[in-house]
């Protein structure tokens, strides 16, 4: 006797647990008027498993499951033996009023109906080759889009600088500031989603990674890497043999779920700022620099990273300015070709005034924050709060 495979039974159990989404006549009419390739594709997704509502497998599986669980109260053993379905979890009493005969009778039409449903589930969950092909092509398009937009921050920064020069303004007003905050926040969001999609589609699976999210982001390792990179850039920029040291206090096994790329960016930017402040306060010809301290604390809610330096601090009047997009105390913006090729791109030490505001957006994107506390005449503490509950959704504006 034909028996459904365990994989098929698992699929049925999986899909039948989702609630089906109701569609009204009005929705169908609205959706179906002047259908384009896009809307027709959406409709097919709605019917396929790739759509979160997984309509057709859900409908079919929940119907099939109903057919399976309609069983005779007096023949449970026989039923289990026949179907190979161990212990179907049915509500007590539900089957008593059910037309059990339709499936309990192996020669009857009920069983035929069941077989039809099985075949359809099998069809519905196996991916047609054109879907696989579509995924590949769509991923390629997304990769191209992402690549095309790589230089946007730099080009925009240069545009803002031109504006600053033309208008001879030292500060940008609130309107431009909040426009840029929204612009860059949405850019981070789009790039996060595209990056995730591309990674899911193309990267070979890495342990502890789901797309670009690392379920066990090791803070110590990332911090060490950021320290090395920031010190290297600092040595190149000031022509130093040895950049200020960075003392790292972090438990070696401190892991949490995060996007490592975001954390690296924030650490690199804050460390560069501290190294620059230390070198410029003590003089690049100084024999020895006071070390920068990077301290990582693990709380229940947050992972907090403090970057402390003895780089003279920021005057209190300038604190609000450090979060604006063109505030920098570097005299001239470093020259950068906006069509730079990423592989030979050298990260600038400073000069765009983008390090802090963009890092704060990254921190806020997943429910964290970035704060700067200064003791003018002594040094600065930057606090990076990262939400470790992983429950906060992306900020919708
Ligand atoms: P950039 O580094 O390109 O100037 P940032 O947004 O990273 O842009 O920083 C803006 C400004 O804030 C810096 O130019 C500097 O004047 C000030 N700043 C940031 N971090 C520190 C720090 N740790 N110590 C002193 N000043 C700082
Ligand atoms: Mg900076």
TrEMBL record:
Its EC number is 2.7.11.-. GO terms for biological process: regulation of glucose metabolic process. GO terms for cellular component: mitochondrial matrix. Gene3D superfamilies: Alpha-ketoacid/pyruvate dehydrogenase kinase, N-terminal domain, Histidine kinase-like ATPase, C-terminal domain. Keywords: ATP-binding, Kinase, Mitochondrion, Nucleotide-binding, Transferase. It catalyses: L-seryl-[pyruvate dehydrogenase E1 alpha subunit] + ATP = O-phospho-L-seryl-[pyruvate dehydrogenase E1 alpha subunit] + ADP + H(+). SUPFAM superfamilies: alpha-ketoacid dehydrogenase kinase, N-terminal domain, ATPase domain of HSP90 chaperone/DNA topoisomerase II/histidine kinase. PROSITE patterns: HIS_KIN. Residues 263-390 form the Histidine kinase domain. The keyword Transferase applies. InterPro entries: AK/P_DHK_N_sf (IPR036784), BCDHK/PDK_N (IPR018955), BCKD/PDK (IPR039028), HATPase_C_sf (IPR036890), HATPase_dom (IPR003594), His_kinase_dom (IPR005467), Sig_transdc_His_kin-like_C (IPR004358). Pfam families: BCDHK_Adom3, HATPase_c. It is found in: Mitochondrion matrix. GO terms for molecular function: ATP binding; pyruvate dehydrogenase (acetyl-transferring) kinase activity. Belongs to the PDK/BCKDK protein kinase family. This is Protein-serine/threonine kinase. It comes from Tuber borchii (White truffle). The lineage of its organism: Eukaryota, Fungi, Dikarya, Ascomycota, Pezizomycotina.
């Amino acid at each position: 006797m034909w028996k459904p495979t365990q994989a098929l039974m698992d699929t049925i159990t999986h899909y039948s647990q989702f609630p089906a989404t109701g569609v009204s006549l009005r929705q169908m009419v609205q959706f179906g008027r002047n259908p384009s390739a896009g809307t027709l594709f959406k409709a097919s997704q709605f019917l396929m498993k790739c759509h979160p509502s997984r309509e057709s497998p859900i409908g079919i599986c929940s119907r099939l499951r109903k057919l399976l669980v309609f069983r005779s109260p007096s023949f449970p053993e026989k039923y289990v033996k026949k179907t190979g379905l161990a212990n179907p979890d049915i509500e007590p009493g539900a089957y008593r009023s059910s037309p059990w005969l339709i499936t309990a009778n192996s020669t009857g039409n009920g069983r035929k109906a069941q077989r039809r449903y099985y075949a359809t589930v099998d069809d519905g969950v196996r991916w047609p080759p054109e879907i696989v092909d579509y995924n590949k092509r769509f991923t390629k398009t997304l990769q191209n889009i992402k690549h095309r937009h790589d230089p946007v921050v730099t080009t925009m920064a240069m545009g803002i600088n031109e504006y600053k020069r033309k208008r001879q303004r030292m500060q940008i007003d609130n309107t431009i500031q909040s426009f840029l905050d929204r612009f860059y926040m949405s850019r981070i969001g789009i790039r996060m989603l595209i990056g995730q999609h591309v990674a899911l589609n193309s990267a070979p699976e890495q342990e502890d990674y789901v797309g670009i999210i690392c379920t066990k982001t090791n803070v110590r390792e990332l911090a060490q890497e950021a320290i090395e990179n920031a010190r290297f850039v600092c040595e190149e920029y000031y022509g130093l043999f040895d950049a200020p040291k960075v003392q790292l206090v972090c438990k070696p096994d401190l892991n949490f779920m995060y996007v490592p790329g975001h954390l690296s960016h924030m650490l690199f930017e804050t460390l560069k700022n501290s190294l620059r402040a230390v070198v410029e306060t003590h003089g690049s010809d100084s024999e020895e620099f006071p070390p920068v301290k990077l301290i990582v604390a693990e709380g229940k809610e947050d992972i907090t990273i403090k970057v402390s330096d003895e780089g003279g601090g920021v005057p209190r009047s300038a604190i609000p300015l450090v979060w604006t997009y063109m505030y920098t105390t570097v005299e001239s913006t470093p020259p950068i070709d906006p069509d730079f090729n990423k592989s030979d791109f050298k990260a600038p030490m400073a000069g765009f005034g983008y390090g802090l505001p963009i890092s704060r957006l990254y921190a806020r994107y997943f429910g964290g924050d970035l704060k700067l506390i200064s003791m003018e005449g002594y040094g600065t503490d930057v606090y990076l709060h990262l939400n470790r509950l992983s429950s906060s959704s992306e900020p919708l504006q």
